[in-house]
């Protein structure tokens, strides 16, 4: 990770550790995406600047983002550590960071949920050996109750204020980057990290929680679009379709559909990993997309997940389509241009050796990944 | 490194980071290809691979985590999500017999 331009294709212990940590963060958010989307839809529709403003229904917005979503995150985080009991104390403890906070406490929930569950896990281990037969239920219920109550109190008094401060500082850092137009540089880190399968960790673990804080304040946030823009990947895949090794060309139309409409970005990572210099293309695409979002003042209401064009359209605030679409289109174009150049426009890099088994299968049948799957010959590119 | 005979496979697990995106996609493809066999195909996050998995299929970039999360289970890493030869070999081994080296 030290040198983002040359991602290590072979796994190292460090990389797996970072992935695993990031996976835990994302793992608390991703099972709850449905609730986020529900919130995003309600917000986009009913707030005063929404599509069909409605005062009564807009009252849903605050409690869902302020309480329900953090509690769900804390619940899920607790469950990851200590199953159902962990989930329950995680949810209770999360209430501690939620009350009195004036930012959505996603980060706080991601800290206190698993922490409370961990405390209970140790408490359970302690009591399990010392409980007499017949008293298990009493002891179990009261340990969970006491741990939950204590952690909730700790949340209000200690963890909440600290996390609020951290969220504030991070948010200030982001607005500083935005106001100095430095945000595109983030792509230099984000795009390489993404293809190393840190995509969920970055988007849901870091950018999402900060974005939500901003979205609540300003009605939209650009942070949701830094990692999830489907443009760079699409540009790369188009370049592969036209100029890539012939053996890979037949599979790219299906990959494009899955990537751009289905929002599963993982599908394009291998195309970068097998020719690491193409990371420059997605970085350039990502950065120009972010720059376009900045210049046009674009933002999304909630996190588009998965990063599909449909999800993007669904969480774009009223009147914000121009900037959002422009950023995606420009990112696609730039990424395509750079990738095409790096692929030597189909010549120059000796890929023609693959012609023998690739020429007969140049089919453009994007509807069926099965067809593509069966027709793709072995990948010879290293 | 462990290997298993294709005919002994009962549960094949496709793992990805969140267990919600790419693994679901590949799992549904494999489920279709393995229709008529007795193999169950599941998709899970790479951190929580079930203990009764016989074969794990996951992207090479996540192989380290899969190995740590389910040691001793045959692990087949692949490079591309569509039509990877390593995945095709697994399907062939299950359908027409053969060894899966993980």
UniProtKB/TrEMBL annotation, chain A:
UniProt topology in membrane: Multi-pass membrane protein
Membrane-crossing residue ranges in chain numbering: 29-48, 60-81, 87-120, 141-162, 182-202, 222-242, 254-271, 278-301, 321-345
Domain of life according to the entry: Bacteria
Keywords (A to Z) from UniProt: Cell membrane, Membrane, Phosphoprotein, Phosphotransferase system, Sugar transport, Transferase, Transmembrane, Transmembrane helix, Transport
Its job: The phosphoenolpyruvate-dependent sugar phosphotransferase system (sugar PTS), a major carbohydrate active transport system, catalyzes the phosphorylation of incoming sugar substrates concomitantly with their translocation across the cell membrane. The enzyme II CmtAB PTS system is involved in D-mannitol transport.
Alphabetized PANTHER family for the sequence: MANNITOL PERMEASE IIC COMPONENT, PTS SYSTEM MANNITOL-SPECIFIC EIICBA COMPONENT
Protein name listed in UniProt: PTS mannitol transporter subunit IIB
Natural source organism: Microbispora amethystogenes
TrEMBL record, chain B:
InterPro entries, per the entry: PTS_EIIB-like_sf (IPR036095), PTS_EIIB_2 (IPR013011), PTS_EIIB_2/3 (IPR003501), Sugar_PTS (IPR050893)
Domain PTS EIIB type-2 as annotated: residue spans: 10-99
Annotated source species: Microbispora amethystogenes
Cited function: The phosphoenolpyruvate-dependent sugar phosphotransferase system (sugar PTS), a major carbohydrate active transport system, catalyzes the phosphorylation of incoming sugar substrates concomitantly with their translocation across the cell membrane. The enzyme II CmtAB PTS system is involved in D-mannitol transport.
SUPFAM superfamilies attached to this UniProt entry: PTS system IIB component-like
KW Transport (keyword) present: yes
Keyword line: Phosphoprotein, Phosphotransferase system, Sugar transport, Transferase, Transport
Protein name as catalogued: PTS EIIB type-2 domain-containing protein
């Amino acid at each position: 990770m030290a040198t983002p331009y040359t991602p290590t294709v072979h796994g190292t212990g460090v990389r797996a550790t970072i992935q695993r940590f990031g996976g835990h963060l994302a793992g608390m958010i991703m099972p709850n995406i449905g609730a986020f989307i529900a919130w995003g839809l309600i917000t986009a529709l009913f707030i005063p600047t929404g599509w069909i403003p409605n005062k009564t229904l807009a009252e849903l917005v605050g409690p869902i983002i302020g309480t329900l979503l953090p509690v769900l995150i804390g619940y899920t985080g607790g469950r990851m550590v200590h199953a159902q009991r962990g989930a329950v104390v995680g949810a209770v403890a999360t209430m501690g960071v939620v009350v009195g906070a004036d930012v959505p406490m996603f980060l706080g929930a991601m800290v206190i949920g698993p922490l409370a569950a961990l405390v209970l896990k140790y408490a359970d281990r302690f009591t399990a050996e010392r409980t007499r037969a017949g008293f298990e239920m009493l002891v179990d219920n009261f340990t969970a109750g006491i741990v939950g109550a204590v952690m909730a109190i700790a949340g209000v008094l200690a963890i909440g204020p600290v996390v609020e401060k951290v969220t504030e500082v991070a948010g200030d850092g982001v607005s500083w980057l935005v106001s100095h137009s430095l945000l595109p540089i983030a792509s230099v880190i984000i795009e390489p990290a993404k293809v190393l399968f840190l995509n969920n960790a970055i988007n849901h673990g870091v950018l999402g929680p900060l974005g939500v804080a901003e979205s609540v304040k300003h009605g939209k946030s650009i942070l949701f679009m830094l990692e999830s823009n489907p443009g760079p990947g699409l540009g790369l895949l188009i370049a592969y379709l036209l100029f890539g090794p012939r053996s890979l060309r037949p599979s790219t139309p299906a990959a494009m559909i899955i990537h751009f409409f289905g929002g599963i970005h993982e599908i394009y990572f291998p195309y970068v990993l097998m020719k690491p210099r193409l990371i420059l293309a997605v970085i350039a695409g990502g950065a120009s997309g972010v720059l376009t979002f900045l210049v046009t003042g674009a933002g999304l209401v909630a996190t588009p997940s998965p990063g599909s064009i449909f999800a993007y359209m669904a969480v774009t605030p009223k009147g914000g389509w121009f900037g959002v679409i422009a950023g995606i289109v420009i990112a696609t174009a730039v990424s395509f241009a750079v990738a095409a150049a790096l692929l030597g426009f189909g010549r120059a890099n000796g890929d023609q050796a693959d012609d023998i088994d690739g020429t007969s299968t140049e089919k453009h049948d994007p509807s069926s990944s099965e067809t593509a799957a069966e027709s793709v010959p072995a990948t010879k590119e290293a | 490194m462990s290997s298993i005979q294709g005919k002994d496979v009962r549960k094949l697990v496709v793992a990805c980071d969140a267990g919600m995106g790419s693994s679901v996609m590949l799992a549904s493809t494999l489920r279709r290809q393995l229709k008529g066999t007795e193999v169950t195909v599941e998709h899970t996050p790479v951190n929580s691979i079930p203990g009764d998995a016989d074969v794990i299929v996951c992207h090479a970039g996540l192989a380290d985590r899969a190995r740590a999360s389910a040691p001793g289970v045959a692990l087949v890493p692949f490079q591309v999500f569509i039509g990877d030869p390593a995945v095709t070999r697994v399907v062939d081994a299950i359908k027409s017999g053969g060894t899966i080296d993980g």
